[in-house]
Write the structure tokens for this entry.
Amino acid sequence: MVSLVMDLPFVHINGSNNSVPMMAYWGVCLPSNCSNEDIPAVFPLVMRLYSPEMVHHVRKISGYFADENSFNDWNWGAVCVLGMLIFLAVVAIACTLFLRFWKQLQDRKKQMEKEEAWRPDSEQALLNPFGLQHWDMASSVNADDEGKHPTGSDGSSGSTRMRTPFWLRIVRCFCISRNTHELLRSNARNDEFISQLDGMRVVSIFWVVLGHTVVMGMGGSGITNMYYVMRDVVRRWTYMLLWSADFSVDSFFFMSGLVVAWKLYPCLKKGIPTVWSLILFVVFRYVRLTALLAVCILLDIYIIPLMIHGPWSYMYNIYQDDCREHWWAVLLYIQNLYPSPQNPSTCWPVSWYLANDMQFYLVLAPLLVGVSAYSWKLGWPLMITTLCTSFVTTSTLVAVNDYRMGMFPLDLNPDDNVSNIYELPWTRWQPYVIGIMTAVLLRQLQPYKEWIVAKFKWWASCGIFAAAGALMLTLIFGAYPVRRDGSAVWGEAQNVAWSGFTRGAWGVSLALFLLPCYFGHGGIISDLLGHRLFGPLSKLTYGIYLLHPIFIMYYGWSRWQPYMYNDKEIVAFFLSAAVIATALAYLSWLILERPVANLLGLLAGRRRRRAVRPRAADNDANENGV
């Protein structure tokens, strides 16, 4: 199988003047002594005989020998990775069974104690001649993680009993039933607007999965009826929901800045934090996010290659080779800038978001929130200046490089667009800064909240929701004429304005949605976004984000023939990816994400379980929006 990426300026559909990058595939028979490296050298010679004028439009040639036995062999790396995953699962199961066994055992001992209480004192003295107090293991198993004393049977505080041993609290960190209970537990928090973020988070993550289903899945293995797709399908106005799926990433940036600033503002308002608190601020965040990311990189290098095979498996080899070389850049969260901003790493393709988010978390959030907590007169000008810097930078890059909106979500040169616009921090921090501004504003309005709630009218809430909805619909469907008729519809000024300001405008629309909810006038929208059904799913969004490419790449790049596009297959592909990604995220929550969060809370020395739940454990990735 030979794959060509060609720029075809002579493709005209419905009178469009677009120049569209197209993917073409040839199935050819070559001698068995040819290798994959020979195909890019030999095929242009063959192509000149077939179509000499087409050679000049070829941008890239790749080849793969499709052999039914072309599976990658098992190696020690794959065995170790698989063994590690099995070990984590066995540890979780063993801890769960251990706690269940000991609870039943201590329940029996407690029943025996009640029976012994009816015996004469002389008989009890014979059974317990030294007057030793019994340690209730069952109460210890159910006691708080952080050493809370179990309650005695007489209702006393039980202060004379033994504290829960540290080793037992470690065992409880891996208990499957306990972690499942915490997943399903209601998100009752003191943060007034936080429950509405659950609905936003769930809708956004499945919007991400939908976009990757088409771009990474169906787009990766070719489409046989491409002319029909280009002529009819991509020109539907409803298809703008797919073209605009990258706004879902901006939603996560907005929520990330919002949550981090909301929690950070009161801490910095008290004064300069200690060195130890700064270390925890960085280390806890890094460990929680990196645990699952490191597993994904190991899967990318050792396990997934054993699953993907066929004519299109060479596309996965690009990611695998990059992960072998630049895995350390991903773990340091600099892969969007390394080896260079114009040539970022492609290891685990969705990890670029985490790199940007970590950079914003370490630099933007402390700087902007810290200055705002010190003085609003300095904080607001600094936040506005930072926001305008991204507007100007993005608009300048679009104008200088002459990027134009076309029939595809990216510009006429997708590679340049991704490296210069899509993944760079200074072009993506608009919604993150708006999230910080929203949180700072709400914190500063807290002393006046009761007065605002009393003055807030229902028609004001309706007006804010209407403005937010109108802005959101404009951003989703506003570029429809360009998607339908090509880049010639818009001039340079329109292209620059759209590319430079839409991400920030999306953040503004989300902020408007949250304002009535925060002041208690969200109505049905607040109830819908804060529904209990979204609570458990919102805790799995980080796992869904990192793990959904596994199924999409496996199903999309293991095919032996291109797709025949139809809407039903898109729906089936998306639903399959969403369900399987959710199941994988649940498994990762049980054996990795939640245990790591529990251990961090345990090591932090937090004294009460209720304090650990919402801040360190439940929101493993909530602070980064995912």
